[in-house]
Write a structure and sequence with these properties.
globular, alpha+beta, single chain
Length: about 210
């Protein structure tokens, strides 16, 4: 292993289970790629950008994810990269081609038999009917969240009552009705309606603030 791979492997120990590092590093070196650990983002856990004007493929992953969420999100974004390599930009972002690539890249992860059983089971179910991302697969998202650091000030949105107030980021909302996997919530200051994932971590408020 050359020094660059060694340095990357050491850096990844902070973010993913060590047994999966060789596989992720091998994916990193499969194409000309710029891989970045990102600051936490509310709207996405990872991002892929195709090459542009001589720049390499670009992948960024939120640095605050727990090790298993970081691993699965990374594989998700690599599936975007390999889909682009095979098909260019002529296919849907989460279409059949991407689903096939995501499944292909997940198989080596599952074959190592090092995942917690709850996550392994959720992933196997996902492979039969892949969703757009782990953030839209309720069962996988719950399994991954089991390994988040505990925060007594937050609660899952689905666990607070209808019409209850909560804070998400810098905004205050009132929870409304459930529409499939998201609640229709009203932003208090503007009255605007937003769809918020039922598994969003929010700060419950006893009174409207």
């Amino acid at each position: 292993m050359n020094s660059k791979r060694e340095n990357i492997s050491k850096a990844l120990k902070r973010y993913i289970p060590e047994c999966y590092i060789p596989y992720i590093v091998s994916l990193m070196f499969s194409e000309n790629l710029a891989f970045r650990i990102s600051k936490p983002r509310k709207t996405k856990a990872g991002d892929y950008r195709p090459p542009f004007k001589g720049e390499p493929h670009r992948i960024s992953i939120n640095g605050d994810l727990n090790p298993y969420a970081f691993l699965i999100t990374t594989v998700h974004e690599f599936a975007h990269m390999t889909t682009y390599v095979k098909y260019g930009g002529q296919v849907l972002p989460h279409g059949l081609e991407w689903k096939s690539e995501f499944k292909r890249l997940l198989i080596p992860v599952l074959e190592q038999k090092e995942l917690p059983l709850t996550i392994e089971k959720a992933l196997l179910n996902s492979l039969n009917n892949l969703k757009a991302s782990s953030c839209t697969d309720i069962h996988l998202m719950r399994a991954l969240r089991e390994f988040n650091a505990l925060d007594d000030s937050t609660e899952l949105l689905e666990n607070i009552g209808n019409n209850m107030y909560f804070r998400l980021g810098k905004m205050t909302f009132q929870r409304g009705i459930l529409r499939r996997r998201k609640y229709l919530c009203t932003e208090v200051n503007t009255g605007k309606k937003y769809l918020v994932n039922r598994l969003a971590e929010v700060e419950p408020l006893k009174n409207e603030e």
